[in-house]
Design brief:
- The protein is mostly helical.
- It has one domain.
- It is built from three helices and no strands.
- The chain is elongated, with a radius of gyration of 17 Å.
- The N and C termini lie close together (about 5 Å).
Length: about 80
């Protein structure tokens, strides 16, 4: 692997890690967002699915970071 490829893979890993973390933290810290919804039905639906959103986003973020790290280290 050339230096340019390694550098691009490192930048991709960093951007993916930061993006996944920001997405996870947005969903994790978003109950304040749900408080501003006007409909009670929307609040109930969000509360019911919030845990699944957090787990799904966390797993997706971990998978993206693992995939990029492995491609960087194994190449």
């Amino acid at each position: 692997m050339t230096l340019v490829q390694w550098l691009l893979n490192s930048i991709g890993l960093y951007v993916t890690t930061v993006g996944a973390l920001l997405l996870f933290l947005y969903i994790y810290r978003s109950p304040a967002l749900a408080e501003h919804w006007s409909s009670a039905e929307g609040k109930r639906a969000y509360a019911r699915h919030r845990r699944r959103l957090i787990v799904g986003t966390g797993l997706l973020a971990a998978w993206l970071v693992l995939e990029n790290a492995s491609s960087l280290l194994l190449s």
